[in-house]
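Methods: example folding runs. The two proteins below were folded one after another, and each record is reproduced exactly as written to the output file, sequence line first and structure-token line second.
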Amino acid sequence: MIPAGYSARLALKVLTGVALALIVAGPAQADLVQLTSSPRGARLAREAGGERLARELRIWRVPTYAVHDLRTAGVVRRAKPERLFATTGFLETATDPLVGTEWWRPAIGADRQAPPGPGKPVTIVDSGVDVTHPEFAGRANTSVLNEQTTTDEDEDHGTEVASVIGAPNNGVGLVGVYPEARLYLWDASPFGFLNEGAAIQGIVEAAHRGPGVINLSFGGEENDPMLADAVSLAFRSGSLVVAAAGNEGLEGSPPNFPAFYPHVLTAGATNDSGTVAAFSSISPFVDLAAPGARIPVAEPLAQDPSGYTLASGTSFSAPLVAGAAAWIWTRRPDLDHTQLFELMRRSATDIGVRGFDNASGAGLLNIPGALGLKAPTRDPQEPNEKPNEIEPNGVFATGTRPLTQPSHLNALLSARVERNEDPLDLYRAWAPGGMTLQARVKGSVTVRILQRFPKGKSAKPLGVGRRGLARYANRSRRGAYVYVEVRPSVRMAEYSLRLTAARR
């Protein structure tokens, strides 16, 4: 996805990058490879000159010429050329004092509450941050996770995004939404461009550091399962992932990833009149909106000696949401990431068509509202939409725990589903031999019992819910694990699921 005003410049940069690739190793010469679980895979990839990017997901950056040999060896699950990402912001000329132009503060209630000290971290996966800038030089609670570079023309974006989140209240320039936030900085532009492999590394590194907020102010139209797996790993690890919706509202709003992935809190942009900005991409995956037009930001000193400029784009809406989420999570540490995700949406101020809409989602970010709203219920075992997310040695080494087992035949849980962010819940359950497994739901949902390893896509369900009850009579003497699937029959639904087993 190429934001407005970036097309010509980015095209020139891409051509330059291809030329440089003939001289130095870069993304144009490498593929992203996800290995199978074969123990030989890592050894062969390393011998081929590969670099491991994500251990749990078995993702490597491998020289393109070596991929064929790895395929021949049978150790490749998927492979694709590494792509570049476009940022989701564009610059505007500053005309007013910076602090005086931070119109977004009253718009989201940031001026009505005192932000806390350092707490839940925010990891910024972006281009590098200028740590010599007055907003970051000596800033407490700022951790550089890898080398930060900011001299290339398009490497100003990370500094801009970081300032929106955490520019301190130090009497200089501007103030971020969470001035004392604990910031982790990951430079995903090692070749001067935001690239996919480095972004995956950053997301996984953030997941390793424990529950926190991860900001992704970039995107592209290609749906890559390896990037999706990294986002899923972060969510499974307990982190909240925030992404920019994109700036193609005037170009038909094409798909944008990672914003379109489930369990990603996607932010659209508003302007100072309180309406959705014309450039903000529209889609059912937009969860809420935040200011994103003419936002004062810090600029790397190497690119602008003044150190500041104005910028627009959902690139700056996302960090407002990410910083606010970390603030709220620090004040309300009893929340888990699934509760925080839903809380940010439920507390938003409705600004568009009444109710949820594809331009502003649930509405405009509202910090005081999120601080005071009753906590939603937790949503267990997420993500759990696909078999490879719940089976051991799939996307995650441990999978998810079955709801029922041979030693425990009954279970009860509460959860929720939502058509776009959480389109279904899938659970493993034990169906004892010679007994009937019953799955009963309450709520605006449907329930089915499915084969665990169906033969072909046309395999029939073992049991289809009628009036909220699905049954499967296991006529075999041997027990077996099956899947229980729950889907919403409205846009979003909370439900309870009870599993029991009885003699036929």
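Second run, written to the same file directly after the first:
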Amino acid sequence: MSSILNPGGSVRKLENNLRFSDTFTNRVMLADAYLANRNIDRAIELYESSLEGNFTNNEYVLAHLIIAYYQKKRFDDIIPIGKRIYNAPEFPRSKAHILYAAALGYLGHSGEAEKEFKTMKGRFANYEARYYYALLLADTGRSAEARHLFSQMLDERSQLSSQERRFNSQWFRHSREELKKLNTQPVAS
């Protein structure tokens, strides 16, 4: 209840918990709260400091570190972490995998990025991955392909159930915004 009235209340409680008992769980819970509240630098510090001892290869922390690094545009730091957890069972269907693929693209490894995105691509599915792929296409000068992918996603929306539309609404909203931006740019020939 206090976190609804005071969003920082939960963070303060987690900070106090960590001060009282500096455990792996308390660090990760506070890092997650910082990440959710867009205090990315502090989240990164805690995630990184949690990767010691028995927790050096903790997949949960490594996946969340990828998310935090992406928000800070630290693409070079994402690749080695993505390779460390690449074969984890949850990785292929995770946000960390999407951001790993995007980081490959932003670092100029277009072929590898496309290969990763294509493993996630499918009609009437994976809207988050497809959104990030279209963003990468637009950012790397492939605007026509990005327009097509954004348009395809928006066209599929009407064929989904109301629950699926609601679940993916943010990706449709973001796609519409990006498509609008792309349509105001001149088409490259």
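Comment on the second run: Residues 121-189 form one domain.
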